[in-house]
Predict the structure.
Amino acid sequence: MKTRSAIAASAAACFALVAMLSGCGGGDDDSAADGAGTASAGAGGGGGGKAANCTNKVRNEQAPVVTMWAWYPNMEKVVDNFNSQNDDVQICWTNAGAGPDEYEKFQTAVSAGSGAPDVVMLEADRIPTFQVQDALVDLKGLGYEDVKANFSDGAWKDVSVGDGVFGAPVDGGPMGMIYRKDVFDKYGITPPKTWDEYEAAAQKVKDAGGPLFGDFPANQPAYVTALLYQNGAQPFNYSPSDGGTIGIDLDSEAVKQVLDYWAGLTSKGLVGKQDQFTPEYISGVIGGDYATYLSAAWAPGYLQGAGVGTGDDKGVWATAPLPQWDPSNPVQVNWGGSAFSVTKQADNPELAAKVAFGVYADDASLEEGWKNQIIFPLSLKVLNDPAFIDYKVPFFNGQQANKEVYVPAANGYQGMTYTPIGQYFYTAFTKQIAAINEGKASGSEAADALQKDVEGYAKEQGFTVQ
C-alpha cells in the first residue's frame, strides 16, 4: 500500500496545477487584518488555529466553535446564515486561499499533524489524495443517512472513496455546449446532437471561411477526462479496501476513440489548440474565434466575470446539451465540483460534520449560490425548485438553460471514480494532449503512452495495478 509520506510528497508536487473553476471564485482574505471577529479556543474547536482570527463574526461566543477553510464567493454570507440558525455550534471561517493555495496549507498541516481546520473545502478529485493519508473522517455514521436523499447518487459517488463518504457535496459542473447563435445562424448550423454532427458542422463552417468550431485544451485534463467518461470509458477503479490495488484503463478502445476523434479535429484545423482560462483564450472567445465552448454549468458566471457577453458579443450566447456518441443512450458528464470534508484533526467530529452537511443547506445560502455566485448547487432541493428550473439566465439572453440543459445533465450524471494518483494523472494527461496537438502522437498513441506513464507511477508509489 502506498505510504502516507509518499502520498504527501506526490501531492505537494501537484499543487502547481491550476484549480478547476467549479466552486472557485477566489476572493481576497484581508479581514484577518481587520480583526473582524475572533473565535476563542472554546469547546469543540479544532485545528487551523483555535485562537486564530475568523474572517466572519462569531455571533454566539458561548457556543462551541468549528473552524473551517473555504473559498466560495460570498462565503461570509453563507457562514452568517448558518451561525444565525444554530445555537449549539458556530463557524469560524478563514479563506486559506483558493484551490492549490489552500491544499498546500492543508498538506502542510496534515504532514505536521496539527494546524488543520475542523472542516475543509476540497474539490472532489482531491478527496482521495487526503483520504489515503488518513486525514479525513468518514461521514457515513455522522449524519450522512439524514441528508443522503438530498443529493443524487452521482453526487455522492464523487465524494466517496470505496465504501466511505468523505465529503458533503455542494456544487458541480454538469456539462453542455455553449455556442454563438450569430455564428450558427450565419452558417445555417443547428446545435449538433452527436459528435459526428459536431464534426460535420465544424467542417461546414471552416469551408465557408468561418471561425474555429471549438477548442481542445491541453491545460484542462479534467475536462477531457469527462469526455472519456461520456464514451463509456472507466479510467480508474479504486477502493482502499482492495489492499493497495488500483485499476488503470487509459488505453481502452473507448479512450482511444475519443482521443483519435479530437486528434482528427485538430489535425484538420476544425478546432483550436489554445490553453483555456488564459487572457488570450478569453480574448478569442470575445472576438468570435470559436463557435462553441464545451463547458460546465458554472461557465456563464465565469465567462461573464471575464468580460464575455458584456460588449459586442452580448446576447449572442446560447447553450445546448453536449453532443453524444449514441443519442439513444445519452451519457451525462460533469466537470468540477466541491465539497466540505471533516478533518481527522477536528476535536469534535460530530459537530464538524453538522457544519459540513449544513453550511450550504439552508434556502437562503442555496439561493445565494445559484443567483449570485458562479456555482451550480447539487442539492435536489434546488434542482427540483421551479424557480431554479425555469430561471431565465441573463448570460443566455433569457434562455431557460437549467431546464433545457443543466438540470437534466445533473440528474443523469452517474459519478466518477477518483484516486490518490489523480493529480499525477492530470499532469501526465496534459503532456499527452499537448503531444496530440503538436502532431507528435495520434490519439491512440497518446492513450498507450498515458497508460504506461500512469501505470508506472502507480507501481512506484506502491500500488498493485490491475
Notes: Confidence is low (pLDDT under 50) at residues 1-49. The domain at 4-172+336-392 is CATH 3.40.190.10 (D-Maltodextrin-Binding Protein; domain 2). The CA atoms of residues 71 and 95 lie 5 Å apart. The chain has two domains: 4-172+336-392, 173-333+417-465.
